[in-house]
């Protein structure tokens, strides 16, 4: 009988090939996930940096309505004189059905009026309800697509779902950058300019911040 042969330890070359395969896989997967987000954030980074040079022409739309008597009675009888609280669900549903706003935010209650702020990316909106007469007025302001995309960049008034997307996008970018760094390290022996370029990427913004930003 032949003695069992012991497996040979992995060579340095095979280990490097394994890690290259893993890094390339995670690098392209994270780049695919973050591609559109990177384009969006790069473009809006430019538009935000030149916001003063890009004129916006706000469009204001006004709308009025009348709260139905059953909902008015519900609003009038609500035990809220002052402070902040959500609209009663039936009233919130009616507002969303008749006005282009989301009524899930907290409203500002006073003895005479309920004021619902409804900010959104690229604009603003509000709805005011008279607690005595049921008269409803609203104003919706739109500042255009550039302002809309700029607000998405900042996560301004964009809701929890967009905030979750930004967290996932940031994680994908982090994986993309870290795997890219390791790929640079693995290939750096054959690419002598690797670390000088990486160093320049660190030194240039650091020098600008130190010298020109006070």
UniProtKB/TrEMBL annotation:
The chain crosses the membrane at residues 161-186, 193-213. Keywords: Membrane, Transmembrane, Transmembrane helix. InterPro entries: PepSY_TM-like_2. It holds the Pfam family PepSY_TM_like_2. This is PepSY-associated TM helix domain-containing protein. It comes from the Bacteria.
